Amino acid sequence: MGVQHEAQVNLPTIRRFEGAGFRAWPAANVHYDGTWAVRLTAGYPAKRLNSINPLDPGDARNIDLRIDRARPHFEAIGRTVTFRLSPLAAPSIGLFLDKEGWAHLSESIVMRLPLSDSVVDDAMHQIPLKDLGRFVSAAFSVHGYDEALRSGFKDLVGSIKPEAGHFILEQDGQPVATAICVHDGAIAGLFEVATAKGMRGKGFGRRALLSALKWARLRGATVAWLQVEADNAAALGLYRSVGFREIYRYHYRQPGESR
């Protein structure tokens, strides 16, 4: 599952971006079983925040016993035990899960863009929102998120430790696009980039994206990165047109119905 051609020969790069991702989108609780990072977040159900993340290709011992140790932690917060497998995971983990009948879930692509002044020269200069509640309301409107998730989402966004810029674009007083840019040293990560249904294809997403990148560039970021679902053709087209290129992929696994 997934194309990992480049990633297999550049594990330090993957570790760099995996670490940036953990800091930028922090789980409420993290514990380690060997080099497996078990990330859990009772208040928000995203798989990125509720998954086992193997971080060393050499660590594949006692897979079944370690799954059994992790399962009660997931069940305690009403989650299904889930693996997030990047190229840092030992291949034998995926083979074990195949044998046990675990399902393959969504695949995502991690993309990177060298961030130079020329990339953002024409971007609209925008000051990020200071009002977290207003940004959350805009994000829920644009994405169409379930209102039951509002509190957990607000806690998540508010817990980001690196400097985060919250961006929205409005038209006729209504939010039409959003983006979060997390500035972490030389790296700028993009999250929650979206355009409201019915307003897509009009350039709003690109404007929000470039404004966020300009903000990060002015703070010294030299590399931008993001994660996007592999089947999101519209988003991939936008990111590639800006200059983002794939560096690796990851996917999720959960037990089959028989388990």
Short description:
It is an enzyme of class 2 (transferase). The chain has 259 residues and is of the alpha+beta class.
Can you characterise this structure?
Strand 7 (174-184) and strand 8 (187-195) form a beta hairpin. The protein is of the alpha+beta class and 259 residues long. The longest helix is centred in the last third of the chain and has 15 residues, at 204-218. It has helices spanning 11-24, 63-76, 91-99, 117-120, 132-143, 150-158, 204-218, 233-242; strands spanning 29-33, 36-40, 51-54, 83-85, 103-114, 163-171, 174-184, 187-195, 223-229, 245-254. The chain has a seven-stranded mixed sheet with strand order 4-10-5-9-8-7-6, sandwiched between helices. Strands 1-2-3 form a three-stranded antiparallel sheet, covered by helices on one side. The chain has eight helices and ten strands. The two termini are 21 Å apart. Residues 1-9 have low confidence and may be disordered. The chain has two domains: 7-110 and 249-254, no CATH class; 116-221, Aminopeptidase, CATH 3.40.630.30. The protein is 34% helix and 29% strand. Keywords: Acyltransferase, Transferase. One of its GO terms (molecular function) is mycothiol synthase activity. It comes from Nitratireductor thuwali.
